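Regression test case RT-17, inverse folding.

Input:
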């Protein structure tokens, strides 16, 4: 197995660290607000198709699996021209541009969520794959790592890989600078706000039981140690449900097609989350929402059961199975 990625993006660093080979294409995202940049990105994508075709052929690929990013468009077109099986994955509750363009030509489309209008023979709802570090996380070991007593309640605060300023600032004010917190906190801030938060937390009068981390390579330990999460609602919703954790979700308001709100509503509709708009989150609202769940054992248990009911721990195996079935079915 090998990967195609975009030059200058995270995959150029992360894929080799994971022990896989990666070939890079010169691509950029389409800026819908800037027609000139959008046209330039489209031309880059078109120009990348021949190189993607050469790279796929040189790797001796039997199939191509698209993840819906910058690379998925050129790679998917190249796969069709090479007459290779093409499987697409969609992580959000709407199809991204590359997947919209390729969905009818793909052999399979694996969706994280049901999407209106996608009831086609080549479409299957598999859920979104979750890493082994989450699925195999051990609660006792994770709690020992963070110094959390077995009987204590714990809140996980996270805002995605870049962090979330609204969540970060509200959490430190509400849970470290004000009195009355009755639970532990594990807070993964991201690098942008870490220095500011570290300074505030070090000076806070109620910092005991509050663990601040700049970065966590995988969220398995944080989720396993917690009883409730305060988070954005990107792909992490599937990590939370994998371990049956309820959440207070604060969707990023500028996400493409507002997909984080749709993700949050998916959890909330099942009774596994409450949703707070980013513009409404402050220290007071945070305390109301978090205390209302952690302070009510029956509500917490009900939400936890609802969260686990949404889990799709077999998602990765299902997607891999679709790929392998197509390879096995080739003449």
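Golden output:
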């Amino acid at each position: 197995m090998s990967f195609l990625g975009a030059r200058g993006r995270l995959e150029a660093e992360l894929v080799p660290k994971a022990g896989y080979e990666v070939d890079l294409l010169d691509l950029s995202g389409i800026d819908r607000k800037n027609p000139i940049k959008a046209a330039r990105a489209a031309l880059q994508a078109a120009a990348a198709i021949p190189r993607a075709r050469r790279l796929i052929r040189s790797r001796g690929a039997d199939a191509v699996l698209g993840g819906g990013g910058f690379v998925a468009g050129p790679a998917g077109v190249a796969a069709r021209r090479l007459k290779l099986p093409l499987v697409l994955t969609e992580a959000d509750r709407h199809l991204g541009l590359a997947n919209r363009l390729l969905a009818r030509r793909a052999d399979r489309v694996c969706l994280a969520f049901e999407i209106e209008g996608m009831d086609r023979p080549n479409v299957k709802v598999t859920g979104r794959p979750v890493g082994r570090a989450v699925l195999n996380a051990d609660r006792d070991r994770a709690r020992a790592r963070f110094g959390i007593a077995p009987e204590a309640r714990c809140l996980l605060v996270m805002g995605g890989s870049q962090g979330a300023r609204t969540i970060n600032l509200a959490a430190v004010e509400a849970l470290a600078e004000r009195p009355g917190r009755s639970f532990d906190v594990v807070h993964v801030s991201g690098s942008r706000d870490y220095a500011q938060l570290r300074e505030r937390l070090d000076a806070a009068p109620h910092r005991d039981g509050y663990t601040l981390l700049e970065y966590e390579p995988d969220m398995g330990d944080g989720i396993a140690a917690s009883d409730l999460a305060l988070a954005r609602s990107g792909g992490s919703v599937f990590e939370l449900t994998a371990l049956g954790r309820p959440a207070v979700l604060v969707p990023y308001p500028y996400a493409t097609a507002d997909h984080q709100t749709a993700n949050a509503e998916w959890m909330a509709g099942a009774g596994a989350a409450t949703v707070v708009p980013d513009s409404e989150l402050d220290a007071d609202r945070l305390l109301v929402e978090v205390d209302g769940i952690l302070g009510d054992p029956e509500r917490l248990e009900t939400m936890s059961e609802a969260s686990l009911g949404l889990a799709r721990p077999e998602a990765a195996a299902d997607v891999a199975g679709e790929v392998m079935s197509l390879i096995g079915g080739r003449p």
